[in-house]
Design a protein that fits this description.
alpha/beta; about 50% helix; six-stranded mixed beta sheet
């Protein structure tokens, strides 16, 4: 296959998982290349995602690597054969690739967890809230670019609004609900939007109140996307250098634990609804 000019996070992930299987089998890249009848350079490109790989080759490699995890193999085969040209591709070249990678990740996710302390999670944001955020962080953006970002964020909500919506579980700190990203009316509208979405059976919204004692988990903010198997879960976090996609198993387990801990100390969904409703009435 021809070498790719751009590698999406999903393509890179497939290559990384194949590399993990090879290393677990104790084989060098050259040895794996010989199994496929290719050379080390081509094998390296496959493992970095710059070259594609067929589902049949994935099965052949898994067999040589003595991988017996059928569910993982089938998930990797599906990734190799995926030719989805999703709605996010309309924004390629006009938005950062990390925006598109997140949209693709969400499209294939089996569930989503969010934890946020300073902002309302993106999937729950109103158009006005998102516009205020983007314009504050990037005040010099031309109007057209700002609107593209807002439009993209609104379209991402499809994963919790479509007929086959995925389970969505989010924990929001009271601070994020009280900070007026827009004016008073916009904040009230945003809180009403959260209440509206939380009516859905597949959406769970929980709140961490200021009054909670002994809470030091404010560094636990995350976007967690469930894969078809746990090994293909992904955590997405913002960093000073941009968006980071985390897939190391030890780190994934750490974030699963953090999510369980944060969720355990939050208010139950019904109490959270009452809490948000009260905040909205105070505005």
């Amino acid at each position: 296959m021809a070498r790719r000019k751009e590698v999406t996070a999903r393509q890179a992930r497939l290559g990384a998982e194949l590399r993990k299987l090879r290393e677990a089998a104790g084989l060098k890249g050259r040895e794996a290349a010989e199994l496929l009848g290719t050379d080390s350079a081509q094998m390296s490109q496959i493992e970095f995602g710059t070259a594609g790989v067929s589902g049949e080759r994935v099965r052949r490699l898994a067999a040589h690597y003595a991988c017996t995890d059928t569910a993982l193999i089938e998930a990797l085969v599906a990734m190799a054969g995926d030719r989805t040209h999703g709605w996010w591709e309309e924004y390629r070249g006009s938005l950062p690739n990390s925006f598109l990678d997140l949209s693709e990740l969400e499209h294939h996710a089996t569930c989503r967890w969010d934890v946020d302390f300073l902002h309302v999670p993106g999937l729950l944001q109103t158009e006005e809230y998102a516009r205020a955020l983007f314009s504050y962080v990037n005040p010099d953006f031309p109007e057209s670019e700002l609107e593209r970002r807002v439009e993209h964020r609104m379209r991402r909500r499809v994963i919790i609004e479509r007929p086959d919506a995925i389970p969505y579980d989010t924990v929001i700190h009271e601070a994020a609900l009280r900070i007026r990203v827009g004016d008073r009316a916009a904040t009230r509208t945003q809180l009403s939007r959260i209440l509206e979405l939380s009516d859905a059976a597949h959406v769970s919204v929980r709140v961490i109140p200021f009054e909670l004692d002994a809470f030091a988990g404010a560094g636990s903010a995350m976007v967690y996307a469930g894969g078809p198997v746990p090994q293909l879960d992904t955590v997405v976090r913002d960093s000073p250098n941009g968006t980071v996609f985390i897939d190391a198993q030890a780190q994934l387990e750490r974030f699963r634990t953090l999510f369980r801990r944060v969720k355990a100390v939050s208010l139950e969904p019904e109490r959270s609804r009452d809490f948000i409703h009260k905040l909205a009435k105070e505005l």
